[in-house]
Amino acid sequence: MNKLLIFIAFFVLTANGGMAKDGMTLEDISKVSSVGAVKISPDGNWVAFTKSKPRVPYKDDDGTAWSELYLISTAEGSESKPFITGKVSVGGISWSKDSKKIFYTARRNGDKKKALYAIPVDGGESQKILSFKNGVGSYSINHDATKAVFIAKEEKPKHLEKLKKKGFKAKVYEEDIQLNHLWLADLTEDEPKAKKIKFEEHVISVNFSPAKDQLLVQSSPTSLIDDVYMKKTLQIIDLKGKSKTKFKTAGKQGKTIWSTDGKLVAFLGANDYNDPTAGALYVANARNGKIAKRKSNKDSHIMDLAWHGNDVYYIEHKDAESRVVKSNGSSDTTLVPYGKGIQTAISLSDNAQLALKTNTATHSNEVYLGQKRLTDSNPWFKNLTFGKQEVFNYQATDGLDLQGVLVYPVNYKKGKRYPMIAFVHGGPEAHRSNGWNTRYADPIQVAAANGYVSFIPNYRGSTGRGDKFARADQHAYADPEFSDIVDGKNALVERGIVDNDKAGITGGSYGGYATAWSATALSEHYAAGVMFVGISNQLSKFGTTDIPNEMHAVHSRAWPWDDFQWMLERSPIYHVKKAKTPLLIMHGADDTRVHPSQSMEMYRYLKTLGQAPVRLVFYPGEGHGNRKAAAQLDYSMRLMRWMDHYLKGDGGEPPAYDLEHEKKLEDKKDK
User: Which of 482, 555, 488 is nearest to 520 (CA)?
Assistant: First the structure.
């Protein structure tokens, strides 16, 4: 009888959510699935989307997550249908004009390179539409589906492989590079053969006009990332490569699209060459190239756009929120207001049905129809308890109003002080919104489950607050931008939320720079730091990065030879004698953006000086951020172990460097 009562009580509590749920773990992060591309059918009846399928650490062979293809009806109560699943990487999804087929690229059935496929919506096998010896990259299909254009590199000469076997492997730096070319195929042929379009720049994007056989092409002089960032051009060409219309632009460019009738073009662009981001919306005449600004980025930034009739639809990020707007040039209509999730991508049907990729504080990116959520990629989230998340407003020492996102510990108790981790975004031309913020390098909900306050600052130089705010850190490296983070920490201490002596900081890239600066110049404020692919020496950074022109144009606004001393003083190594903060440094061994030598410099200075504990970890085969499952999990494990050791533990000497992954291998084998 007692056992029966206990069972009934357990059942009732569970059914009503009365049982305590577990918080998120690091291995939970490694299995989070997220919606990728979202494309609504022209008739508005279906949404095709890709969804990540993470690899299982210790079980699957290492690599990046797979990408599967799904379909969901826009009718009420519909469930998503798996179309192409398993160990596959589907990309480039688009629709046929009659909404009967989905086009996509993938390697399937023994393909050595990606090919273009089509799959019927009403059932049936995929049909290979087009293959190419060097793989089909980004593509576009013309208005009557008779032609396809795609981006691909030329095949390397066969003699190179023979020479390599004989030991001739020399590479000429930044000259031994390949361009992306345009290739045209006639889809009416039984086995279409692609021919190169005579266009000599490096192609970044291409789109057929919806009305005729002309191409909207985004390109740069070379494939060097600095040129791709800062020297993009936009023009309309014919199928022979002849330029028909050139658009005079300056600085960074984002997405480019045709109007529904092909008479206009819209694109995201910069205000000038020194604008850190392409956050303004422009509309241009496709015939004469005349450009007009449709939406400025005075106090916000435009993130994505689509076109329907005479209206441009766009996603606008402002502060830590976002909204969706329809603009006809003279008036704007809000379709999804601020506070209804964070929209990151938009797709429109012919009848203006609105599909969105949206995330919130409690779920990663999902498919939405306007404000209605259609998918649930992680139903197991229901069994987890998440820390409360909210927008956090505060003031900098100099009076500037600042904002970030605050995540409380699970089971937070008012009046109790908690250890804090500041998770600092990179860029700095980026921002963090009041949406899903947990990922391998920012295990925020894991921190919440383990009793940490997470502070996610949008310091000066961040996007989301307009052009002036985004430029506020130009030629002002480190101070006051990183003091903004200290001001946020101090505000939380004053509110009685954070323990002043138990604050940590971490970030990657520019966030890694913030961490290195905070562990040296601002060391008295932090008890632990984890620096990822970060900057330690602004002088040598210029000489080892692949983006020196971008750094100069939108960050430093000075060359090292203009003022060596200023740039040296804005480098963490210059302040190394102030270092008291235990610092864990991690870096991809193949990083070209921030060279691994930046981490080596920081490590060697701190190790030689011997004032603070330091450890350096390299990840072979990884670049500017870890992409593969094992390296991602290893990184997050090391980050949290370091924080636990110095913010919650006894501190002192660093924790053991060996994570003993082999024990998990055995566990997985037993199961």
Answer: 482
